[in-house]
Amino acid sequence: MDTEPLRIGLIGYRGFGAFCTETFHRTEQGRVVAFAGRDAQAMAETALRYGVPKTYTDWRALVADPDVEMVHIVTPPDKHAEMAVAALEAGKHVLVEKPLATSEDGAQAILDAARRAGRVAGINYVMRYNPLYQAVARIAREGWLGGLTHVGFENYASDEGLGDAHWFWDKGQSGGIFVEHGVHFFDVIGDIVGAPARRVLGQTWERADGTGKEDRVQAIITYGNGIEASFYHAFNRPGALERQNAHFAFEKGHVTLDGWIPHTLHLSAIAGEGDLLGLRRLLPVNIVDDEDFPPPGRAVRGNGKEYRVTHRVHARERLGDPTPVYQQAVRDVLLDLAAAVRDPAHRPRVSAADGAASLRVALAAKRSAEMGRAVEIGREE
Questions:
Q1: What 3-state class would DSSP assign to 265?
Q2: To 10 degrees, the CA torsion angle through 220, 349, 225, 285?
């Protein structure tokens, strides 16, 4: 198996592109060998800082460079499909920032091009690689807290860095909040729920200043197994007031994750001995002293069921500063993708097909908001 670093060409070198370059260079599996961007001088300065040997002001020249094995696309979303298809047709592997595309046709074009070329197409869904989301997925899969009954996600984000001319506000470039941002959480929460989204009710709101900027969205999704999840995103806060959390309600407990890139997990639950043993393999679980618990007969009822329990428990797991947590997730995405490039038998944790599936949900939420009614996903409206 080839163990040489994956040679990466980045289309988009500012901001997150620079963050990824620095992160990739801390691994032995990837090395950025070329940038593409419009500002030649600024790009040259960034390339010098990170030791990137080549720069192009035309992204097509980067795609054609024989030294580039994988193209990482870090541009406004409306460019993703065109660039990814061109890279795949040139024989490159691709890593696309979210969303995969801004339309279902664009996403399908990427999947088709990857299949024809026999190349790997990945999406940078870092949430799937976050240890705390992975812990919740394990709890749901093992049934240690009983069945999952509801999920609620709230994102109160800052717009301080989003000036009036920023592409984020232009739905033609970004696709809107559901598409540009919501796909992350439609993907990771859908994976934890373990069933496809079947129905969505979406709403959107604009700023009161008359500029037409969509700054708040909400979606309620019903999944194929009957679980419902609510998603709220608002880009209207000072940076100092940003707050994000995901709440998972189980039959026998609650788990909450704090942070856009989750850095802290809180668990509060009731458990039997077997469940406690399983949870302790995953988290630092403590038994709560409660003279009234367990109840007589060690039986409690809820959701029409009886549960045999022995302890009230809680856990708190903190990963540390969000930036290193974010960097580790980006690194893990690259390592997973590099493994798939080097070994065709390796299946990445998340794929471009997952990106297409979550985009389908986002577009359905967007249509629902426009139509003023719920939309059935995967069926003709």
A1: strand
A2: -90
Kindly state the tokens that stand for 374: 């719920």
For residue 98, is it within any domain? yes
User: What is the number of helices (H) and of strands (E) in the chain?
Assistant: 12, 18
Nearest CA to 144 out of 316, 282, 297 is that of 282
Averaged pLDDT, groups of 10, the chain, 381 residues long: 85 94 92 97 96 98 98 98 99 98 98 98 98 98 98 97 93 97 98 98 94 96 98 96 98 97 96 94 90 76 87 94 94 96 95 98 98 86 42
Of 55, 226, 37, whose CA–CA distance to 148 is shortest?
A: 226
CATH number assigned to the domain comprising residue 23: 3.40.50.720
Q: Whole-prediction pTM value?
A: 0.94
How many domains are contained in the chain? Answer: 2
Sheet with 253-258, edge to edge strand ranges: 285-287, 311-318, 264-271, 253-258, 243-250, 148-158, 228-237, 214-223, 197-206, 375-376
Q: How far apart are CA 187 and CA 96, in angstroms?
A: 15
Domain that holds residue 284: 128-322
* Rounded distance between C-alpha atoms, residue 208 and residue 221, angstroms: 27
Quick check: helix, strand or coil at residue 177? helix
CA–CA distance, 79 with 110 (Å, rounded to integer): 12
